[in-house]
Amino acid sequence: MKLNTFFMGLLAAVALVVACNKDATSKQLEKAQNDARQAADDMKDYTYSQKDAFVKKMQGQLDALKTNLDDLSAKIETSSDKVKTEAKPKLEALRAQQQQLSVQLDKVKGATESTWESVKSGFKSAYESSREGFNKARQWVSDKVAP
């Protein structure tokens, strides 16, 4: 249920990496990681009867994620050519993970009561993979772009 909190915290942390000093950023990153862990745990609490609410919440998160990735991309575009060159494959990987989450969400939309737990588990797996990718990207941005 707190996937929204995770994505917003995660993306806010990435934005803060560019705008804040490293001490403040590390605190934001730690909070985002804790929020992400909580969101992953809360995902399992949705039942089949709550499928529509789950789908709506996750779709909103994916939309916010796309917007925030676009913002991050724009910030990186203002960086040096070296940073842009290094960032391009990382951003492409994040977008691929975002697309994987979208595919998994489509499977959730089509889930039946008998497939609910399996489909939800597939979404959770894709989510956790994305979380790992975002954590790596945040660290990279912190190392390369932050002042």
Description:
The protein is mainly α and 147 residues long. It is 84% helix and 0% strand. The protein has helices at 3-19, 22-43, 51-77, 81-109, 116-144. The longest helix is centred in the middle third of the chain and has 29 residues, at 81-109. Residues 1-25 have low confidence and may be disordered.
Question: Helix share of residues?
Answer: over 70%
Q: For the CA atoms, what is the radius of gyration? A: 16 Å
Number of helices: 5
Query: Quick one: biggest sheet?
Result: none
Give the number of domains.
1
- Shape field: elongated
Amino- and carboxy-terminal Cα gap: 34 Å
Oligomer type? single chain
Strand and helix map with partners:
Blueprint: H1 3-19, H2 22-43, H3 51-77, H4 81-109, H5 116-144
Helix pairs in contact: 1-2, 1-3, 1-5, 2-5, 3-4, 4-5
